[in-house]
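Why does residue order matter? Because the sequence determines the fold. Keep that principle in mind as you read this record.
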Amino acid sequence: MVDFEKEKALAAKEASKLIGDGMVVGVGSGTTTAYFIKYLGEQVRNGLNIIAVPTSNVTSKLCKQEGIPVVDANVPLKIDITVDGADEFDSTLTLIKGGGGDLLHEKIIASATKREIIIVDSRKYVKKLGESFPLPVEVIPFSWPKVAQHIKKYKGTPILRLNPDKSPFITDEGNYILDCKFNEINNPEELNEVLTNIVGLVENGLFINLATEVIMAQGDKIVYFNKKHKLNKVIEEDVQKNTINKLFDKIDQVIKKGEKPVVEIDLDLTAFDPANRTIKALKAAGSKYNISEFLNPETNFDLLPGYTREAWTNFLCRNKLSEKYPHLKWLGYKDATGDETNVYSVFHTTYWTTEWLIEDTLVAGIVDFVKEIEQKGAVALFISGRWDPLQFTPSREVLIRGGISNPVLLIGNPQHDKISDAESKALKQEEIRKDYGTPVAIIDDRIDNRAAVCNANPGIDMLSIGISIPDFTYDEEVTGISLKISTFENYLSKER
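Structure:
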């Protein structure tokens, strides 16, 4: 039997790790967020300095009981992170919320937050919204019969929510709740628009484009769900399939020779999606140089910038930023004194903030990809130019949290100021051959890294595989090579 309370606590504890000193934290309602409040209270008592913005009177009371400072008056204009629960969610991270009756306050706070984290147990994931939970809508008491009549026209079955004593349930704003059964909600956007236009209906429980990620506990494991976006139109599907087929064929060839194949996989913009810290770094640069577009990059840009100079230049050209801000120096590194002298240097320096690395997520499909190559007898080895030894632990935690239970990970460039990432990776090849096996492929977003690794394995016919993951600008060279991928999804292109 599944212990759902244990799952709730596990998801809540995982979310509590994302709270940093000085944050303004939105705190949701419900039984799962009650666990989060408990863990957050422990952190506050241990010295964490935050301000909580509760979504309900009950949440406010729980926070105060735990010693968490709260803002009860007005919602702050900007909330760093909000942690809340959900009654249902689907693969697009569209939610049904409001089972506790606090959907209006929850939506207001969600709309003001930079990062909306949803914590749930394994029951809450559904293929179609409305499968197991009715859609709550908050209505003005005077209007509820008329609103219910309108909802019936759209094939909904509204039921007035009652207290145990049969009196109407009253929200914190003094309104009623109608729980509306729609069976399956095939088009949440369309239904949301219909409900929004009903006079007397205050708010509905469809949360669309508000959640940035979902942390779901499933047994003893944590599963992260992130927003899915359209792939960059850089790599065609048949090219990707051909690339992965060649990799699997190469693994088979090396195994037949009696050797242990090793597939080397880069971290940043290859195995890891660094969207959260990219957004933070853009906002830091935007604040310093008064670049308004950078202050809300999630809505202002269709693709975020990769961290390399080439990808940054691509990003600038794509958005005509040099033309919009001709007075700014957009590209360069630090000057001889170490001062940040241009937009890129501020972005690049901030991007590599060690404390932010834990916020990375795994790219889609890589867990199954790793399992497949391991089942074939190969070693999946993660290798990165991340230079600081302190970066090892958060890097490993991202891999484990994403579902790679015992990752092989090599990072570290003690001569970071003297040698490049490419040279650092090249120097590790002898160790890899000695301890792990024969390198058969390097998957990396940077051509210089791939070339250095291949050159450091003389006599071995390695595959050099470029990658451009979704949602980020890319180095132009990736378009001109034959072996390339955009995602680890749908990699099983033929029967094996």
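Residues 237-256 form the longest helix (20 residues).
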